[in-house]
Amino acid sequence: MSPRHALPDDALPDHVNEERERAETLRHRLGLSRRRLFAATTGLAAAAAIPLAQPAAAGTRRVLVPPGKRGIILYTVRDAITRDPASTTSPTGFRRVLEALSAIGYRQVEFAGYRQHANAEGGASLDSVEGARLLRGWLDAYGLRAQGNHGFIPGSWPLTTADLDRFKLALEIANILGLEHMGTGSDPTGSAYKADWDVAADKWNALGAIARDAGIKLYTHNHDAAYAFLLDSGPPDEQGRPTRSSGIRKLEYFFGISDPRLVHFEMDIYWAHVAQYKHRTYTAPDGSARTDVFDPLRTVRAQEKRFPLFHAKDGASNPAVPNGYDMVPFGTGDIDYRRFFSRLRHPGYHNPMYEQDNAPGADPAQSLQLAELSYRNMAALRG
Questions:
Q1: DSSP codes, 145-159
Q2: CA of 110: how far to CAs of 72, 104, 121, 286, 371, in Å?
Q3: How many CB atoms lie within 10 A of CB 176?
Q4: The domain made up of 63-380 is a member of CATH 3.20.20.150
């Protein structure tokens, strides 16, 4: 069926027309064109408006994100988790949000802390052994597996006794939840200087050893600044710090000085593409300007087993904004996830977590609606 021969609305079943109307409402809310929304959406509304895929062709292409690997970081739906249950009929609190995500089809989640609204079942904070047992019961009940948490990583170095005790409690909670990984939403350090990354490696190696003894892989999450160029050479500034770069990127230097058995990574694929857009030039030791375009896929393929987790966050290209992209629901942007996932050497190893920082909105149901749209698009990826 060609687009010009699509069935008229009055020839379509009622439920298909309802899906089309929902898709059109969502399109207006997100500010997307029909082309962008329908090309990325795999629901009934899209099927009614665009040609159906040929079954034979679809059958020859492998699913890029298997059902059991489709995950979401709960930061995406933080508004639902922290909203007062008395204020809305939409799901609120951990229990009801986990139930809703399971109904959508997600089978993995990543926590972003353990706080919810005080009126939700279990109370405001589940950051305790008792709270973790409650969460684990809900995860099991809804067929979900928790893969990680953006939680406590000590800022001090050397470690204080208080920080070490808190870190060990975080590991105990992680074990109750069944986490294979525990980490942070921050880069190892925000510094541009080699000496600070050396210190960060000492700290992360030490913490990674403690985590390994607890049966957990420690990971750090990246933003675009982590893939800017390291200042490690050239004439010193007034404080004796280097002002130029040998051309190595900060996090790639950290790969080499952190222990691959102890320190792991979660690439945020959106922020890695922002780095590709922003961090292209550096001043070499001789003062000359050099260009080097970052390739996120090449970085991952060089040491895939150090990337057990991904943030699958999409972006629509927009050169008018500093980052070069606007965050959009997964599958509605310009980041080539089909290429990225299809070229991994160990596709069954990684755990991609859909994330969208700006999913919450005035509509209390919006972040869960976008989670559903993004799930469908993730499930539709073939390669």
A1: EEEEEB------SSP
A2: 6, 16, 20, 45, 14
A3: 18
A4: yes
Q: Is 122 left (phi over 0), alpha (psi -120 to 50) or beta?
A: left
Cα(314)–Cα(42) distance, integer angstroms? 16
Looking at 127-131, 153-157, 304-308, which range is the least confident one?
Answer: 153-157
Q: pLDDT digit string (tens) for 349-365?
A: 999 999 999 999 999 99
As a whole number of angstroms, the distance between CA 220 and CA 190 comes to 12
Distance in angstroms between the alpha carbons of the first and the last residue of the chain:
24
Structure tokens at 299: 């970085």
274, exposed or middle or buried, with CB in 10 Å at 0-12, 13-18, 19+? Answer: buried
**Structure tokens given for 240:** 């004796």
C-alpha dihedral sign at 200, 205, 210, 215:
positive
Name the residue among 60, 28, 11, 19 with its Cα closest to residue 376. 19
Q: Which two tokens stand for residue 121?
A: 């079942």
Q: Which part of the chain has CATH 3.20.20.150? A: 63-380
pTM of the model: 0.86
